[in-house]
Each structure stands twice: as structure tokens, then as C-alpha cells.
Amino acid sequence: MKTTRQWIATGAFALLPLAPLTALITAPAAQAAVAPEALVGPVADYKLYVLDNLEQLVSHTRDFTAAVQAGDVEKAQALYAPTRVYYERIEPIAELFADLDASIDAREDDYEKGVEDPDFTGFHRLEYALFHDDSTEGMEKYAQGLMDDVNDLDSRVQGLTFPPETVVGGAAALMEEVAATKVSGEEDRYSRTDLWDFQGNVDGAREIFELFKPLAAQEDAGFVERVQDNFDDVEETLADYRLEADDPSAGFESYDRVSDADRRALTGPVTVLAEDLSTLRGLLGLN
Amino acid sequence: MSQSASIAPPSPRTLRLGMAVSFLLMLIALGVFTLSLRAANPVGDDGQVIEVTASGCEPNRLEVPAGQRTFTVVNRSDRAIEWEIIDGVMVLAERENIAPGLRQPLTATLKAGDYVMTCGLLSNPRGTLHVVAGDSSAPASTLPATAFVGPLAEYQVYTTLQLRKLRTSAVDLRDAVAADDLDAARRAYREARRIDLHLAMPIGLYSDIDQRLNARADDFEQREADPAFVGFHRLAAGLFGHQGTAGLNPVAAQLVADVDTLAERLKHASIPPAQLAAGTSRVLEAWLDHHRDDSAIAGRDLADLVALTEGADKIVSLLSPLLEHRSPAVQQTLQANLKALQRDLPAAINSSTPSGVAAGALLQATGTLADSLAGINQTLTLEG
């Protein structure tokens, strides 16, 4: 069982409403070999990564929403996916702010009245207008709302002390997200830009893995090798669908063109990655 | 005289008796005096006494058991001194601005190992402090280490971002000095100095960099004329004292180089959790050490205190969630003390005239915040 001190430490960090319950009920990991102070640097570097991506998210969102407000459908369509990437990379942290996650990234299925629901806002509301209706009509307020929400997210994240459990657990959370909603193609059902999001989630998970890899390798070298191989497999499959092999910014083909065989081929390593990465917290003594 | 003549001289026997009685009384008085000292100062409160003379520490080598130890520093030189305990290049504890003839206590929690003591002038030989293991009553460093990963990481992010700004300002300062643009140089100085003091705690952990950035003229043998006197106070002496940029080119260039060295060090540093509060208390105390006797605080001294308080604010916000779970009362007191100082500061700035504002309330509020920060590690440990 946890000692009082561990309970307090857990509680202190837990941004309580969102802390995975496992943090509160799991016994301390058997391996406590990773010195807690060794985690400080990677957690700090991760926040710097998130801040960099947020800066990009803010500036890309500015261009994207400006295109919507200017009624430039074609430009807005082109900017939709490249803007979202930055949000998808930092989802483990962005998700901590439930209100903003809903207003920025919720899908129509999350609302009772679907696309007609007045609370349905953010990227996916704009996606519906841009790719389903081929129009920006009536979208000004949604564009402005998205810009405001992204700015709000930026200032909240800047002031946030990142909970180490959330950071380390974020790698698995991202891959679970891929397994749950990306492979199925439900995330970007109108734009068919799922592979952009897919890559964003993989980038975000890989960043966390790379930052903690030296520590994880001390505990379990086999784990590190396995995870690396699976990441490589996933990225290799993704690379097949890049529009230009040497230019990541060119993006991906429509998800409609991903063969069933490849969707299945992605499911395997993605699921294994999600499972493997879910042990990272315990491995680093953060349960 | 007639009066004295009327008094008969005492007999030799009475004299001997009188001497015996007065000797006895003296012994009793001495005993009572000693007892009263012990009552006021529990045994060992002085701890190790170190006398700092014009040429160094006496003794120059000390050995103490590990744990919480008190040192009493006596200034036997003819100028104000500082005394520090240094681990490698990191400052563990320090007292600044000890006036000639005065004694100041300092308490530090020490792990076994070899440390260096600074002894007055920077050019004086350093003393050695040997700490031996084996005292079980010891360190207050038993805080749960994982609890500090988040706050320490956030603090590392803060220092990284502040350092980027510091570098920009230092480069602006260097360029303005090179262009002999006094106004721009002063602006850049103020901005750089503000960030320098936001980071006073981590910078204070590196005695060599701290000296190059923040040492005062009085710390050097030839004071302002000393070639080793560089950093912010040297730049201020030129930009504000002599109202010009003359001779400041190498100093400003050195500042940029030192900021780069600092950034490199802090990138790989792990700040001990206990330093967050203790180190912040110390930098506030160091500011106080230089202003305790002032009747007014003005201009750049006031700006320094504002910047130090901004740095302390970050620390308080980082430690508050931990404190709140252990002792809401202590957390509230700390917050209240910070707010009290922050409330006094804008008032001080607004009413600031060239002659400054009355020092009393500011010194008291600063001292209260420093004390309250100094007590926090104990709270976290005791209630952990």
C-alpha cells in the first residue's frame, strides 16, 4: 500500500479531477531505481516542446481562422489539417483542460443534436462547413471562438506545472487515441485528413518516449527496443501515404485511399505500442 | 579634605574579609551571568565560531558532523564581508554584508563531504569545511523526492525562458554600449537586471558566476577600480554613476559571455528541492543585508526588490500546492506575506521620489516573507 507521504504526493500533483484513478489505487512500482530528480529534465523539456507546438498552433490557427473569416474556402480547407497537427501532438496536456478540449476538438457525436447542436464548435464544426458544405457561411463566430479558445489554452498551459504522471502517461494516451479513433477514420470524416492527425499523435507520443528513453533503457532495454521497432513500423506505413516523400509539410493522401490491409497493418503495432507505453509510468517509478 | 578625614580607614582584617566577600560575589555574578547566557542562548547556539580577518578565515579548516549546523561568523576585518559555504561551485548557505566587528549566525543542513568557505575578500584564500557522516539527528532533506519533480521541472522551464530573455537584453546592452547610446543601454540594463534578479536563487547557487554578475565594488580589494570588478554593479556604476558608457565595452561583452555560461550550467543542473524555498529566502535576506540600516529605498534598489519579489512569486506558486496538502495554515501565511510585500511595492514605486521611500515597512515585509520561506522546508518535512 502507499504510504501517507505517497498519497499526499499523488494528491498534490494530480490536478485531481483528471488524474487517472490508477495513480491512486496502484501499489508503488517494484522498480524504484529511477531517481526522481532524473525525471525533472525530461519533464521540463517536454513542456518546452509543448510550448513550441502551442506557439505554432496559435499562429497557424490565426491563419486558418482568418481564411474562414475571409470566406476563402479553398485556403481554409488547405490550412485545416496542418493547423490541427499541433493540437494533436500536445493532446495529453491540452486534454487536461476539459472545457477547452470540448470547444476546440469535440466531434458531432459528442453532442445530442449532432452537427445541429449549438454547442458543437471548434475544428470539427469548421471541418463540417468547409468539407461537407463547401462553405464558410455563418462560420465567422466559430472561427473567432476557436481563435479565442486556442489563445486561452496557450495562456493556461504556460501557467501549468506539468504533472509528471500525465507527461509520461501521455505517450500511451496518444497511441490509445490513435487506436480508438484514428484507425477507424471517424476523427476527420469530412476532410479525410486523418493521417495528419495520426502523424501528430505519433509525433507527440514519440517525443515523450524519446525524452524518457535513456531512463527507461536503464530499467528495461528490451522494452525500449520493442517500442522503437513498433514506432518505426507505424511511421513506415504512414510514410507510404505521404504526398511527397521528402517533404513532410506536403502532407498525406486522403484516408479513403488507405487500403484495408494497411489499416489492419497499422492496428497491430499501434495497439502494441499503446499497451507497451502504458507500462512506462511504472517503469519510471511514477505510479 | 575634611570629609574624607572624618572617615576612619578600614582595618586590615576588614579589608581581607571585604576582598573575600567581593570575590565570592563576583563568582556568583559570573555564574548567574553564565546561566543567563545559557537561558537566552541554548547551549551550542553559537555553533562553530569563525573569525574573518582581513586576510582570511580563522580557523581556516573546520570539521563538523553532518546535519543541521550553526556557524557564527565574526568580522574582524575593517570592511563589510560575506561568508559562504560552497559545494563544488554551488552555494549552500551564505551571510552577506556583515559589518566590521559584528557577528552573524548562519544555520545550514550539511551532508557528509568536503566544502569550501569563502573568507571575506574574493582574493583571500578559501577555507575548507569537512563534514563527517554519522549524526542521525540530521538532514531536513527527507522530503519525498517525487513530489518535487513537477515543481522543479516547471522551475527549469521558467529559468530556460527567463534566460532566453536575459540573453536578448544582455546583447541589447552590449550593442547599446558599443554604439555609445546611453538611453538604450540604461533600458537594456534595467530589463537584464530585472531578469538577473528573477533568477537570483539559481544564479546564487554558482558562486563564480554570481560574483561575475552580481558582486559589488566593496567585495574587491581596489573596489570600483579593481580590474576584477565586472557585472551589473560595474555597469550601473558607469551608466548611472558616471552617466556614460566609457570603459564598459569589455564589461558588457563579459556579461553576455557569463549569461551563456550560466545558461549552459543551468541546462544540466538539478536544483536541490530544498533550495527552492531556502535559496529564495536567502536572496531576499541578502538584499536586506545591504539595506537594513537604510532609512529610504530608492530607484534601482527598489527596482531590485520588485524583481526579487517577482522571482519569489514564482517559487511560492510552485510550492503552494505541496504546502496546501501538508499545512494549509503555513501555505496561507506564506501567501499572505507575499501579498503584503507585493501590496507595499507598487505603493512604494508610485510614491518614489529621487530620495526614495521610507524603508521601514518594506524592510519588514521583505524580512517577514524571507522568514516565512525559510521555514517551509521544515514544514514540508515535518508533516510529510
TrEMBL record, chain A:
Signal as UniProt keyword: yes
Location relative to the cell: Cell envelope
Superkingdom per UniProt: Bacteria
GO cellular component, one term: cell envelope
Signal peptide: 1-32
Pfam families: Peptidase_M75
Coiled coil: none
Record flagged with keyword Protein transport: no
Major location category of this protein: other
Domain Imelysin-like per the UniProt entry, residue ranges: 44-279
InterPro entries for the chain: EfeM/EfeO_iron_uptake, Imelysin-like, Imelysin-like_EfeO/Algp7, Imelysin_sf, Iron_uptake_EfeM/EfeO
UniProt keyword list: Signal
Family statement drawn from the similarity comment of this UniProt entry: Belongs to the EfeM/EfeO family.
Protein name per the record: Iron uptake system protein EfeO
Species of the source: Salinicola corii
Protein's gene: efeO
UniProtKB/TrEMBL annotation, chain B:
Domain of life: Bacteria
GO cellular component: periplasmic space
Translocase recorded as keyword: no
Subcellular location: Periplasm
EfeO-type cupredoxin-like domain sequence ranges: 27-130
Keywords: Signal
Main localisation: periplasm
CDD domains (UniProt xref): Imelysin-like_EfeO
Transmembrane segments: none
Keyword Signal: yes
PANTHER family linked: IRON UPTAKE SYSTEM COMPONENT EFEO
The name this protein goes by in its record: Multidrug DMT transporter permease
